Predict the 3D structure of the following.
Amino acid sequence: MVDDAALRAERERRIIEVLLSLNEGEVTTYGDVADVAGYPKMSRLVGRIVGRTDVDVPWWRVVNASGHLRASDPQLQAEILAEEDVIVRNLRVVDAPLGRFARRP
């Protein structure tokens, strides 16, 4: 039987791996990160991991399913995304160089 701590560590490792694979200008959703990591319907888990990990993940490249910025500082998130040529209006991604919500294989 796998213990809970090992399961949590594996989930976190896989989610962080997906986050670290995001490229400049690529925007994805919490749900897509969860799907690609192998944990469909666990978008809230992705949000919790993004919010508490000590790993320097590109948190600004992750938005909610409708494209809205949900970081603790959405204005900072918008500024960083703009530096990557992502178009944000009213704190919502409307276009990105690599597609609005690019999925990772």
